[in-house]
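Researcher: Here's a chain I'd like modeled. Treat it as a single chain, no partners, no ligands.
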Amino acid sequence: MKIPLLWERLGEGEKRNRMKLTSEQMRFWSPEVRELEPYVPGEQPKIQNLLKLNTNENPYPPSPKVVEAVQAVLVDQADVLRLYPDPDATALKQAIATQQKVDITQVFVGNGSDEVLAHIFKAFFIQKEPLLYPDISYSFYPVYSQFFGINTQQIPLNENFEIDVSDYQQENGGIVIANPNAPTSIALGLDQIEQMLKANPDRVVVIDEAYVDFGAVSAVQLVNQYDNLVVCQTTSKSRSLAGLRVGFAIAQAHLIVALEAVKNSFNSYPIDRFAIAAAVASFEDQSYFEAQCQKVISCREQLVMDLTALGFQVLPSKANFIFVSHAQYAAADLAQQLREHGIIVRYFNKARINQFLRITVGTDEQNARLVETLTTQILNKAVN
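Model: Modeled as a single isolated chain. Structure tokens:
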């Protein structure tokens, strides 16, 4: 039995598991599952003195009010955990609606933005015409498309790794754009997003804003003007809640109803009590949120200056990561040498970007360690 897979895309655990399986055992699998090319998350290695700059986690902790809210769930011997959480997560929806200045009927919540995106793909993109998205973007998009049997067309970024919105003025079954784009870190302006919305009035346009809070402008303010716009966000990055898995979408109510139908056909209780309590507390502490975002932006700008001084080309970033290359050094070699010094960055062995590294912005101290290691242990030694 032929089991076609892109082997290099599998995580190490999945590789080991599949190596143990025989064709006889895999006869129980659905044929479609044998064909899946699953998403591979950024590794979470267990290395002493590790500096982890590979998965775009926030280097600063969540609001202290988050800690208080989680502790409150544990009162009375955590008796409340006997009960199911609110299937609608009403308190969370209201907190998001208040912070985003929209109506609660315009908010959908899920177990991380990845799950929200999966529901979006199921709800809107199974069409006769192809779904459009950039050729260099979030690598979950082709995974979802394969999983749901969605016809797709990848639109090449231009020579500067930018999205040309005029390329999306063609027949399609929907559009999904990460803004800022990942892994390039480059953001579109609202005028460019509006151009896509106006050019595609009968198709849903999804703006995936996982990194928007680090200097880009959110398209949420356009939701009331465009009945074909869905904005997807997460609490994992700017709110430092990657460990709790809370994502959300904002759109006009008729689109939210479709997402609720998909959600309740899959899992009616996607968000647990801890996650609801923590996320509500985070959205209610706007001043802390804004201060931490500004810290990351300041750290990013210093890191960009430091790496530019070392000869790196750094694409213009509006995210909590940067996308860099060096004319004199192979990106794969740099990633490996950094790893040998306990620093993990993200390398993509893909066409057009295989000479780039994606580096998460850390604290000033963490970034200084990265720059010092490059300066004294890698770049200078390579020259010598």
